[in-house]
Request: fold
Amino acid sequence: MTFETRIERTLMAVVDRCKDPSAPKKLSAAIEYAVFPGGSRMRPRLCLSVAQACGDRNPSVAEAAAAAVELMHCASLVHDDLPCFDNAATRRGKPSVHSAFGQQIAVLAGDAILVLAYEALLDGAAECPELLVKLFRILSRSVGVPGGIIAGQAWEYEATLNLAVYHRAKTAALFNAAVQSGVVAAGSDPTQWRNFATRLGEAYQVADDLRDCLSTPEELGKPTGQDSLHERPSAVSALGVNASVKRLGCLIEDALASIPSCPGQDELKALIKTEMDRLTPRRRSTYAA
Reply:
């Protein structure tokens, strides 16, 4: 069974419980709308890839962890798109959740998906309580304060910030969760994987900054030029386009070099190379720094 099939199957099983007849229909529909169809599903694919590279001793636990990380990501997108934040009308090539269902339902759907992430962990790892505690801690720290994605969003409203700290919280934190969760689900020690996860998360954010500057809404399925519009800190505003491209290349090299020796090392490297090639804007060479 492919990673994609395992991810979608697990997500569907979690989201389906929201369709209970006793639940508010509009909220249930908004939750499903926010999760399906997905984007690249890079974070859950990374989780399963790392688990497999480490021996994949508990595949059902790895699937639950992958789904939990993806649900946290989906919830963050619902909230990021709200008028009080990015005011984005589209996401993944269709109207954003608040555009389709209204702001009130969007806020509630995002909150509900956060809770579903923990339910996914509970369901998939209930028979491995020692792993469940570790996975809960990893997920919570990647989302909350001081270094999770919520803190990352909050940094945008501070008078001053450190760009590296901001990127580590806003994006790298959830990548760290995906990697560490995959390692823990496989029964291994995540300590030696942290540098790889951090570098990969930082690379993903630099690539996202470049795409926001160089790509079109049609290419991304969401509004572009948002960093400039909202005066948001980014690699491009701090370094310029060409220097950001160089920074991206260095981060990718560092991430690949940081993958610990493991049975699935080559397959994991291939996944990272393919994904980062997909994320790198094709028109970057035509722009000056």
User: Anything to note?
Assistant: The two ends are 45 Å apart (CA to CA). The chain has one domain: 3-286. Strands lie at 90-91, 94-95. Residues 43 and 178 are 6 Å apart (CA to CA).
